[in-house]
Design brief:
This protein is mostly helical and about 575 residues long. About 70% of the residues lie in helices and about 0% in strands. It contains 30 helices and four strands.
Length: about 575
């Protein structure tokens, strides 16, 4: 995913994958230190797919209409019959390898006959450039300039060759000289603007495009290119205006529709983005990039099936479209189709074997498939490729926790925090791990730091309330935290936590009310909490009934609660 066009801009919108697992919290071993619902496991977020845009092409001298300059194919050398007017085969006209050699021989013969003719060198330079032999083209353009120091076309086209070689400074120097010779040379401004854009000097690019527009206000390419520079400056309204003008001048300009779609996408107007991508596809049904971008916008709208269909069509057009596989994979993750996601991540790795993102994605799918060793191997590889990947450390820590190595998990969470010290999720995850090691002071400190970083995190308030109650900590603060968690996110788990806090405070009626609320919201686990309250009140029959109800619906991850409930049932039954 290092392609220049691909990563020129990345959206800041995050595709949040809220895929909840339930982790068991460790018991502190005391006979009277019961636990209720443990905090939910959280997933890290995945950056949303970047839109893909098309850059403006450079304009060679022959691209300018109405100037009497050479046609798209270099003109035949003086004294030679025009190939387009005879009965030669396509190969003779330059359409095949043999024809290309014949044309080159003609140009070279013309130079041999008149070595001081700048036009002859220029024409051969055009031929070489058309065949992507850029070094040879530059040599011929340079010789043409030596013979005619004011040969503006030769400077312009030598600039194009430097541009194609990514030597943008040299290209700018040649375009600048072209402008000095001919201050009204539209395409020299346009091409210099493209070079400035490649160097990230968008203001200079816009200035050149604007001058080109002043000289020729009716050329779609220039508006399109200026729109790209405005986009790079995040001036999406100006970009849209320029793309719109380009479309008015050329209603079949598929690239302009695609890039206008990316601007609408960045503004959050996904419906308008989809409409533009759809129009681009209507113009060019094989436009893979437009399908990919439309898939992104459908994903932003939560229409994952439509997103997958578009990514799939992009892949059908281009079987090596790495990003289409990658983000189709994440879309399958959103649909919890782990095997399909894994298959896409494997294809992405085949195409981009040195990109850690692919290993992170596949590692995540293995994690969700509970293949902990395979997940760990992929996160290891991701870290080898990118030692600064907080995501890889985060999920390797999760994997260590699943394998029962909580200390290794803490070490990886700590590394993730060192890399991204302002990410509250890392602290919350480490807090849960400290708690499993019964290091409640460290757990509470991490939740406190998470709250400082994100005061709206219901999970952090809920976790701090839960572990304070579990460790017989500050129960007054625990109640305040539980109340705040409910204010932020009134879920069943939040009521269950507050019910447990009330239970630890001896406020049994309030505890029962909260457990009732949690059960009404679908959390049958809270029957366990009601059993604890009734047991504390000495109402054995009610306690037994609640523990039995809990056992009827308990999940495999609740095993230690299952064991505890059975022990309590046995003790209550023997009394």
């Amino acid at each position: 995913m290092s392609d220049r066009n691909l990563w020129s801009t990345t959206r800041v919108v995050l595709l949040t994958l809220i895929l909840v697992l339930v982790l068991g919290a460790a018991c502190n071993g005391g006979a009277t230190e019961e636990e209720t619902t443990p905090p939910e496991e959280e997933t890290a977020v995945v950056t949303a797919p970047p839109v893909e845009r098309d850059d403006a092409p450079s304009a060679t001298a022959e691209d300018e209409p109405g100037t009497g300059q050479p046609e798209a194919e270099p003109a035949a050398p003086a004294g030679e019959e025009d190939a387009s007017e005879d009965d030669s085969t396509d190969a003779d006209k330059g359409g095949g390898a043999g024809g290309g050699r014949d044309m080159l021989a003609r140009y070279s013969r013309a130079i041999a006959e008149n070595p001081d003719d700048p036009e002859a060198h220029y024409s051969r330079g055009l031929f070489y450039e058309s065949k992507d032999n850029l070094e040879a083209a530059i040599a011929d353009y340079t010789r043409a300039i030596e013979l005619d120091p004011d040969y503006a076309w030769a400077y312009n086209n030598r600039g194009d060759s430097y541009y194609s070689l990514s030597d943008y400074e040299a290209a700018i120097a040649d375009y600048t000289r072209t402008i000095e010779i001919d201050p009204e040379y539209v395409w020299a401004y346009y091409n210099r603007g493209n070079s400035y854009d490649e160097l990230g000097d968008y203001e200079a690019a816009i200035a050149d495009y604007t001058r080109a527009i002043e000289l020729d206000p009716d050329y779609a390419w220039v508006y399109y290119a200026r729109g790209n520079s405005y986009y790079s400056l995040s001036d999406h309204e100006a970009a849209i205006a320029d793309y719109t003008r380009a479309i008015e001048l050329d209603p079949d300009y598929a690239w302009a529709y695609n890039n206008r779609g990316t601007s609408y996408d960045d503004l959050g107007n996904y419906e308008a983005a989809i409409a533009n991508y759809t129009r681009a596809i209507g113009i060019d049904p094989e436009y893979a990039r437009a399908y990919y971008n439309r898939g992104n916008s459908y994903g932003d709208l939560g229409d994952y099936e439509a997103a997958i269909a578009d990514y799939t069509r992009a892949i059908e057009i281009d079987r090596e479209y790495a990003n289409a596989y990658y983000f189709r994979g994440w879309t399958y993750v959103a649909l919890e189709d782990w095997e399909a996601a894994r298959a896409d991540s494997e294809r992405y790795i085949e195409l981009e074997p040195d990109d850690p993102d692919g290993y992170e994605q596949r590692g995540y799918t293995y994690y969700r498939l509970e293949d902990w060793e395979a997940a760990q191997a992929d996160f290891n590889r991701a870290i080898e490729l990118d030692p600064q990947s907080a995501y890889a450390y985060f999920y390797r820590a999760r994997t260590y926790a699943r394998l029962g190595d909580d200390q290794a998990a803490i070490d990886d969470f700590t590394r993730a925090i060192e890399i991204e010290p302002e990410d509250a999720l890392n602290y919350r995850a480490r807090a849960d791990t400290y708690a499993r090691l019964e290091n409640f002071d460290a757990a509470l400190a991490d939740f406190t730091r998470a709250i400082e970083l994100d005061p709206t995190s219901a999970r952090a308030y809920n976790g701090r309330a839960w572990y304070a109650a579990l460790s017989d900590g500050d129960l007054e603060q625990a109640l305040e935290d539980a109340n705040r968690a409910i204010e932020l996110e009134p879920s069943a788990g939040r009521y269950d936590t507050r019910g447990y806090v009330y239970y630890k405070r001896g406020e049994y009626e309030a505890a029962l009310a909260d457990f009732d609320q949690a059960i009404a919201m679908g959390l049958t686990f809270s029957h366990y909490g009601r059993g604890l309250v009734y047991e504390a009140l000495g109402e054995a029959e009610k306690a037994l009934a609640e523990f039995e109800l809990f056992l009827e619906s308990a999940e495999p991850d609740d095993q230690k609660y299952i064991d505890d409930a059975r022990e309590r049932i046995e003790a209550l039954s023997s009394d």
